[in-house]
Amino acid sequence: MADVIARAFSGSRSESDPVLPAASPPGGPAGDAEEIHVDLIELLFFAYRDFVGGPDTLLAEYGFGRAHHRVVHFVNRNPGIRVTDLLDILKITKQSLGRVLKQLVDTGFIDQLPGPVDRRQRLLYATEKGQELDARMTRLQSRRIDAALAHLSPGGREAARRFLLEIVDAADRETVARMTERPWEAAPVAEDREP
To answer: What does the radius of gyration of the chain's CA atoms come to, in whole angstroms?
Structure first.
């Protein structure tokens, strides 16, 4: 089966290759009232694979994975974020975050400080090392986005943004829209923070 898939990507096919019937889309035979967007679903899978590919390679140098990427990114974008707020953004369990966060703190990418009023609170900051890592990953992904946007019409960027925003759950859409409208900027360096 791997050979069939590999040839599908390479575009080469020999006479002896089996011709597989097209799979029926989920939900029943063609002609059902519900339109099935298999092409867009598959494009999203492939786009995501390639979108995270560069950062995945970079993260592997540190023994990190995609969860580390998300944590570093959102902590860097939201200096002083509470652990509970990060859990809300990432929609992961406290246990999953705890393991990843411990690695990032232990290796010097994230600082975890007590809250100024409630010392039980844990506020998260990207260290200079964490900011650097996030900037490198962001640049890799921005280049890929720039290349894709270069092939779209002038309104294509806003259409792409709107499309992605519409995929977000309706309950979170307004919050996500506000969060993603902020311009990219480097977080303050660790030494500039209150202890």
So the answer is: 21
- Helix (H) / strand (E) containing 110: strand 110-114
**Single-letter amino acid code for the residue at 58:** L
Residue 153 burial (C-beta neighbours within 10 Å; 0-12, 13-18, 19+):
exposed
Task: Report which of 74, 75, 71, 83 is spatially closest to residue 122, judged by C-alpha positions.
Answer: 83
Which residues are bridge partners to 110 per DSSP?
126
Is 34:73 a contact under the CB 8 Å cutoff? no
Q: Contact, 18 vs 4, CB < 8 A?
A: yes
Length of the chain: 195
Structure tokens at 139: 């640049």
Is-above-0.90 flag for pTM? no
User: What are the distances in angstroms from CA 134 to CA 71, 147, 150, 185?
Assistant: 10, 20, 24, 11
Q: What is the pLDDT of residues 13-61, one digit of tens each?
A: 555 554 444 555 555 555 557 889 999 999 999 999 999 999 999 999 9
